[in-house]
Amino acid sequence: MRQALHLLHIQTKAKGLVEIGGKISLWLREQNISTGLLTIFCRHTSASLLIQENADPDVRTDLETFFETIAPEDSKRYVHRTEGPDDMPAHIRAALLQTQLAVPIALGRMALGTWQGIYLFEHRRAPHRREVVLHLLGD
Amino acid sequence: MRQALHLLHIQTKAKGLVEIGGKISLWLREQNISTGLLTIFCRHTSASLLIQENADPDVRTDLETFFETIAPEDSKRYVHRTEGPDDMPAHIRAALLQTQLAVPIALGRMALGTWQGIYLFEHRRAPHRREVVLHLLGD
Amino acid sequence: MRQALHLLHIQTKAKGLVEIGGKISLWLREQNISTGLLTIFCRHTSASLLIQENADPDVRTDLETFFETIAPEDSKRYVHRTEGPDDMPAHIRAALLQTQLAVPIALGRMALGTWQGIYLFEHRRAPHRREVVLHLLGD
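Predict the joint structure of the above. Result:
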């Protein structure tokens, strides 16, 4: 049984979903692990990880609209306002979504379903350089 | 340290919670692992995993009602409508709930609390055959 | 590769966030694991785990308000009422938040970002003694 650690940098442009599964698969292939467990960990409280449909981009649009509605930029609702109107909604979205994902590895690949893609969900308006830790364990 | 992988098939009938902890426990017992980590991974973006109260069935009713209300079948809200009125709400529920769960194994059993059960939450109206990957690691 | 298991007891006073990262770090230091994977598991369906901002306490206030609003104590909404007005909202919050977290270990420490703290989110009004299982795997 072996372990590997890697730090992935993801540049975001604005609020929204960024596909990161391709970069993860590339790194995974180099590790030569056939069976194992991959943990994906986002080092931020205003961005999240999400496994979602990778086919129709309208799904991403509707997801973004949903989270915009459930945690709106509306400073009257929040006590925490010092970091801009998009900061507290970002923390709420991060609580509702995932900071970390565990994905089994089978035959050297993530055991995702056909329609599952892996995304980083940026919750801030401004571009950010996000850090995602990959931890791999297996044979 | 050993690993084991298994693919569980769960037949759903309609929207709602299906208990899957019993099937997982049965498989776990055969693996002869005393201490370890179990990862449960749902290979779909319109069904979720959930650890919830296993006692009063009213809790499941109220959970189903809550998710029906927060992400209703209302085509006016969504751009993605090609797969039926229940598809986009299913993706939103999948974002709010879990695609994967990690459960420590102690004394050969999942270290669940007394009132915790493990459920697959079907978000589509029609019956589906769902795939759940089990990954086990331990001694 | 080694494993370690530990049961952490957390006393809560009322609804709200309790910092537990300090206790976890203390235990982690004693295990002498440099690279690995830590799983944190909450054995309850009316309390959750959450990674959130550890700086401005106003963030915690706003998070508490958000979850009070999205799943209010309003007995007219719920069928499950036998365990008090705060019980069904507690189960809904537990479904929206996390029961378990997986955190990579690098250089003997949790690979958290600068602003990330680990919290137990108590969803019941009354004080509770909560059990959190720690599972560690690594070298």
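The mean pLDDT of chain C is 97.
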